[in-house]
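This part of the workshop introduces the protein records we will be handling. Backbone structure tokens are a discrete shorthand for how the chain folds in space. Once this layout is familiar, the rest of the handout is easier to follow. The record below serves as our worked example for the rest of this section.
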Amino acid sequence: MRVPFVWRRTAEATEQAWKDRVEYWRERAESAERNHATKENALRTAARQFSGLFDQHQQLTRDHARLTAQTPAFDDGAARTAAERIAHLQSEVTRARAEAATETRRADRLQQRLDDAVGLGPRGIANSGPWQPGYRKPKEDAK
């Protein structure tokens, strides 16, 4: 039997190549473990949040069902009566506004007649001596 003859450099190079290969696969395994742990953590967080949101939705659904059961049904007759009342009020408001405008015009005409009667017309103050004893019309400023 012959002992295999191997050069030392060749053996060291082969050993280093295998060590490099082992290091490469170890890094890949560690990276895969980290990715897996990150994924598991994200899944747990998402499941926790989904569970919380589902519980809130269930509570809101129960509250909505309870409130809906307490709410009386739509009363068509009451709605019709309310609509008629609103229409009547709108027509009354329109009538009252027209009446107020008429009275305002009447009052304005009466005020104009009073102003004319007491000398407060558009030309200025007239001689008010007849109804104001002792009143003298101011003299116009000479310019």
